[in-house]
Amino acid sequence: MDELICLLEEHQISYEIIDHKEPIRSAQDGAAFFGIEIGQTAPTLILKSGTTMYAFIISGDYGKIDFDVIKELLQCEELKLAKPREVEEATGYSVGSVPLIGHGLPTIIDRRLHRYPYVYGGTGAATSTLRIGPQDIEKLNHVIAYDR
Description:
Blueprint: H1 2-10, E1 15-19, H2 27-34, E2 44-49, E3 52-57, H3 67-74, E4 80-81, H4 84-91, E5 106-110, E6 119-122, E7 128-132, H5 134-140, E8 142-147
Parallel strand pairs: 3-5, 5-8
Antiparallel strand pairs: 1-7, 2-3, 2-4, 6-7
């Protein structure tokens, strides 16, 4: 998590890291724990097309992923969720803990995150959460596409 904090400090980003005793396993659990709308949760999913991996940062109320829409955005033939082993190999983090920033992957962002001044997502550690503005997520990632 030191790398994450260094990145945030280096770019003078307003943020908060919130520690909790248990991992938060779902958007519903995160919304309940933090007392926020489910749309403010921002899980980072890892998608795979052939040998290329992408980070997909979505609003917790996104619903079911339409892979055809995302394939069109990325102009690729095949696309699926990466397997847990692939996520760890590509990012160094386990599924459910991939940080919102600092993962090093080309990123797709759900535009609906901008409904909120702050969103809550991964830090790389299962028992902490990053509170950050959506515009700063964009600033600190290599954004290649927007969804919705």
